[in-house]
Amino acid sequence: MAARVLNVNVGVLGHIDSGKTALARALSTTGSTAAFDRAPQSRARGITLDLGFSCLRTALPPQLGPGPGELQFTLVDCPGHASLIRTIIGGAQIIDLMMLVIDVTKGMQTQSAECLVIGQIACQKMVVVLNKIDLLPEEKRQSAIEKMTKKMQKTLENTKFSGCPIVAVAAKPGGPEAPESENPLGVSELIEVLKSQAYLPSRDPSGHFLMAVDHCFSIKGQGTVMTGTILSGSVSLGDNVEIPALKVTKKVKSMQMFHTPVTYAMQGDRVGVCVTQFDPKLLERGLICTPDSLHTIHAAIISLKKIQYFRGALQTKAKFHITVGHETVMGRVMFFSPAPANFNEEVQENVFDFEKDYLYQEEYLSKDSVSSEENKENDQAGEVQLPKQQWALLEFEKPVTCPKLCLVIGSKLDTDIHANTCRLAFHGVLLQGMEDKNYAETFLPKLKVYKQKHKEGQVERVMDDYSVIGRSLFKKETNIQIFVGLKVKLSTGEDGIIDGGFGQSGKFKIRIPDGLKPDTKMLLTAASKKKSKGGKGDMTKEDESSKNDSAQPVTISLIFKRYVFDTQKKMIQS
């Protein structure tokens, strides 16, 4: 039996020009199809435009089990150019261990910070690599490295990578033009650190086969090869696989892993799958899967968290670049939270409960956001109460194909690339996709998100002990009929019910089932007498002071809720 090979995917992330590709080249022993800036436009611009993959094989370290075997690090060289961040997000979903490459002469830069954010969302372990130490003058090199190491430790203090290894290297001493004979510095030490950080990623061959394809090309006489990383399940020779974006199904004719033919591959493996009669131009990157296992959706409900480094509020109705699966599309968001009484309730993970009521929010609630009206009422102590979980409805500008429960990242990629600011706004999990194009009619009415409405008016006069006439609650043109039967409260404490319109100017009649209190009646009778008196002749001083008394009118308060997606726009009172 062949010695086992354990594959660990290592993402090489960092700011543009921090030397990621040179580092991947110094580490690798086997280049794969996409490695080392093969793309002509990449070479011309001297930057990585797409995910490059290569591998490094080494003996299996003792912590990963007894017996012979090899540890294969698949190095995923992610582009550092800001406009290519969507490619990085696509790559981060397949990474077990991250190498954050920092130019030792520059320290943390904008995209290094964004890469760190992506790492925190998508990755469990990290190694920081301080590159280009050959640019430091030799007599000051050690102290400069120590200084930068301390700085990085401080930066990582409040992240999940606190205390991670930091290694100093020069991947390509002398820079890109230097002769190949120049040996890299510190790379063998880095390989030892990577081995010490390697772990058995949890891999599961069961479930539907799903693979993220990042390159597609044809080989004469063989067919079309799709290379990528298996995200879930497994694949064998002869299996049928679907390319859902094109609604095409093909049979697997042959497979290779880093130039070695194989008959089987599973989650976490990097593999080339060969099929026949398929034009590679149709699929540059995307997903392939077990037939009918993915869904194409027009909208989705996600649970989400704001990314702490994003400046500014997350507003309902705003548009974001939404990365789902391996696609990035524009989408509009609507945020909502539990009803305030349930803010502290534990929420079941990865499940959305359609039976519950949810409160519409103008923006994602965070410490720095303005709390909604309803929260202010709950918030006597002055401390904003935040819900344990918040959700969003995403509506995509064009449909996306993705697995269920996949990672979702919202960003503002149109922010100026050179602005020193994090463009990643939120991350979450897709809980429910809407496959029907007419989801607004067929699906959204099931979503019980409500807005709390609060209207105020005034009592104009008393009719008798059990009824009053109100005004200023409705506009003249409002159809008062739809409000008949709703409960109101007077500022003097009585409960009333709207009984119908009164005249043509938006006034209305309120029935008070328990009758008006004597004090209220006196107050209202006095006020209306003063009014009628005030109409005759000039105001006396006495009238003026009484006008100030009646400046405290009896107000009418109407509170109800209305479900955002209720086609009948019913008003509901608890």
Topology:
Elements: E1 4-14, H1 20-27, E2 30-31, H2 40-45, E3 52-59, E4 69-77, H3 85-92, E5 97-103, H4 110-122, E6 125-131, H5 138-156, E7 166-168, H6 187-197, E8 210-219, E9 223-232, E10 234-236, E11 240-243, E12 248-251, E13 254-257, E14 260-262, E15 264-266, E16 270-275, E17 286-289, E18 295-306, E19 319-324, E20 327-338, E21 358-361, H7 373-377, E22 390-402, E23 407-411, E24 424-434, H8 439-442, E25 449-464, E26 467-471, E27 487-490, E28 495-502, E29 507-511, H9 518-534, H10 541-549, E30 555-563, E31 571-572
Parallel strand pairs: 1-4, 1-5, 5-6, 6-7, 21-25
Antiparallel strand pairs: 2-3, 3-4, 8-9, 8-17, 9-16, 10-15, 11-12, 13-14, 13-16, 18-22, 18-24, 19-20, 19-23, 20-21, 20-22, 23-24, 25-26, 25-30, 26-29, 27-28, 27-30, 28-29, 30-31
Main location: cytoplasm
Biased composition (Basic and acidic residues): 535-547
Region (Disordered): 527-550
- Average pLDDT works out at 82
What is the first-to-last residue Cα distance? 70 Å
Reported for the largest beta sheet, the result is: 14 strands, mixed
Strand elements, count: 31
CATH classification, class level of the largest domain: Alpha Beta
Could you say what the CATH topology of the largest domain is called? Rossmann fold
What is the count of DSSP helices, taking H or I runs of 4+ residues?
A: 10
What Rg do the Cα atoms give? Answer: 32 Å
Percent of residues in helices? 10-25%
CATH architecture of the largest domain: 3-Layer(aba) Sandwich
Based on Cα principal axes, name the global outline.
elongated
* pLDDT < 50 runs, ≥5 residues: 30-50, 80-88, 371-375, 377-381, 539-550
Total tally of structural domains: 4
Task: Name the structural class.
Answer: alpha+beta
Relative strand content: 35-45%
